[in-house]
Amino acid sequence: MAQVDVLDRLVAVVSSQVRWRRAEHYGLRAAFYGALLAAAVLFFKAGLGGLALVLAGVFLVGATLAGGVIGFSRRVPPTEAARLADRAFELQDRVATALEWAKREDRTPLVDALVADATERVQGLQTRQIVRRVFPREARALPVPLAAAVFFALAPPIPLPIPHLPDFMAAREDDPTPERVGTPLVQDTMRPLPKDPLKRPSFEERDFTARPGSPGAATTGDLSAIFKDTALAHQRPDFNSFLKKGDERLKMLEQVDRLPDLQSDFTSSQYKMVFRKSKALTGGLRPDQISPQKLRELLDEMERLGRKGGNWSPDAAEGMEALEGGNQDKALEAMEKALNKMRAQEEAQRGGKNLRGGREGERAGNRGRGSEGGGPDDQDFGEGEGLLPGKGKSPSPKGEASRRLQASPYDASVEGESRRGRKESYDTNMTGRGGKMPSRLQYLGVIGQYRKLMEDAITRESVPRDYHSQIRDYFQALDER
Amino acid sequence: MTQESRVQEFVKAFEGLRSEVEKVIVGHREIINHVLVGMFAGGHVLLEGVPGLGKTLLVKTLAEGLDLSFSRIQFTPDLMPADIIGTNIIVEDANGRKHFQFQPGPIFAHVLLADEVNRATPKTQSALLEGMQENCVTVAGNSRPLPAPFFVLATQNPIEMEGTYPLPEAQLDRFLLKLRVRYPALEELNAIIDRTTQSRTVTVQQVMSGPTVLAFRELIREVPIASHLRDFASSIVMATHPQWDGAPEVSRRFIRYGASPRGAQALVLGAKVRALADGRYNVSIDDLRALAAPALRHRIILNFEGEAEGVDVDSLIAQIVETAAGAVTQTRETFLR
Fold first, then answer.
1. Looking at the predicted structure, is the pLDDT value of residue B223 above 90?
2. CB contact under 8 A, B3 and A109
3. pTM here?
4. Angle formed at CA B265 by CA B261 and CA B266, multiple of 5 degrees
5. Helix, strand or coil, per DSSP, at residue A337
6. What's the pLDDT at B193?
7. Do B229 and A97 touch (CB under 8 A)?
8. Which is nearest to B1 in space by CA: B66, B10, A3, B279?
9. Which of A24, A106, B159, B273 has its CA 20 to 30 A from that of B10?
10. 3-state secondary structure (DSSP) of residue B104
11. Which pLDDT score, from 0 to 100, does residue A436 have?
């Protein structure tokens, strides 16, 4: 093993410096707490007498010494001392490396040269204090308890309040009992208080003015004026019968399904709400993964809406029957049918207010002629379906070409004229034949596929998390169109 | 020969080779040092810089300073793997009998300059992979060793990316160091003008042979490194991994993949060469700091956010190194606590 005595000596010197600094550090910390104790003892010197001064001195000096001893006795790892020496004397890790490798079995021939080099450099060093003094936080606050201790030591003893506890000893018969009966104060306290009769709360009546035209005349003090908007306004209020028979309003409250859904967005139509719910239910899932319970609830809601004035109620009912029979696929088909009818009815209600062209009218006309779901262009596609190759309902692997394709291969040469008037942006509102031609790609047929592609891309590609919600919002906006 | 004399011989050879290169190359002291570090560490070096900064000239001058065979391949899109590693050709002997004979490619040289390596197709680029890692190539099922020492110096242009094939991560990882050649300073540019526009011929002398380089490579591996410095190197490399528990915030935010264990090897080996070239027998923390960027910059892949914000990998590495160094040197402050 290489001779590392010089290096060990350097490490010992550094360790010693560290120990003394630690002793100072911990001594100051302990002195603070010792001074606190000393001040407390001197505060109570009235009770302790001359012993307080002795105790205070013992606490202060003892704590300081104890802290110093603890700090000095803490172990300093030689490797850390060596690294400290390397940094302080700019030895470029020579000492730490030499000390570590000199003790290793697998040391290389260069280690001897390293030890010699490090030894030579260490011998040329001027040993100095390299561990800087670190004052603890307590050292800054130390003058406060010290000053307090000196103050309490010099100040006269502070009289402490003597607590007078009640005499819990058993009273003896021969104890003189003080005569307290005759004092006016005692007399006052012993005088029985006059009985305060419990006053019943009076039923205070107020005058209410009857609304002109209300049934029945409101007399003075008639509380039925409160109920002037109800059919009971002409009667005197009888709360017992009110609770027994039940107010009409209470009955209304019992019919939960007739209450407005305050959490829903009433700016959107029924169709949009149902469509959104159906998308949330079926989005990205296979038919066997969809919850039958939720599907039943949705069909139930569609059926209820249909009863209010729609023609999709039978479809929804058919879907519920299919669901009861365990045929979930059929139930989903029925739901899609009902959705289509809902949308058709909504579009019919909107009439010509929207910006859609003649295609909608044509479709409506087709439906009117009984050609419901006649061609591939007329039907909406579900999730994962559409006109992309292999996705459509056509047996052809490339899907079925639309009639639009057969009519003209290029969209650019669509026959028709742009609408008249000022156009501030890109305008697709055409008139003539072009306006009646169906689009090549059906919107609802592809939006599901595109949304799936988007979800895949978000999970596969490293898109920043902040952009996820923006992308999803964009597709959500597309869904709602 | 004592260890001290071996080290002194290395220092002298290192200085001599550098001064020979500096006869031709103006400035770029750090680049020249790192190229020599890569050569003595037994690795390969990738030089990146815009055209006209003297990358190719640097490598050619270095090859002239070594008593070693040198070949240069100008990578182009139509270069084929056989153009690099060689092929079997049919030859006819004196008796008229035909047989295959291996015609070695330019890869069979001690110093190989792969100029504009990102202009060749990935297939051709990958022809270098086996040679760079295993020091041998396989042709027609026969493995043929490359001459030792084998040292690849590749150059690439960071601009004009049209028609180029950026090196895949697997091949980038084969390079020990990646050096960025920057524009010269004003004084250096003046010196370049003076040196290259006058009729003065510079002769580079050969100062080192192949066996000497191999002997120095053995010597370098004997340089000891303290365990706390080895931990420092490991923590730098680990801190480039965003999924590591101790990774700093910058790593988690901007890095997709961190450096491989080859990065740690490159860091420590390079630091050993730097220490020995400095005449020291041990690695210091400054050696590791100096080698961190060249050894790791091509092994870190930024994520989308890092690319979008134009994060500079070198500054990222500098932050990582400072974080790791803080953990090593903070004992000085916490010593008394």
1. yes
2. yes
3. 0.59
4. 115
5. helix
6. 84
7. yes
8. B10
9. A106
10. strand
11. 63
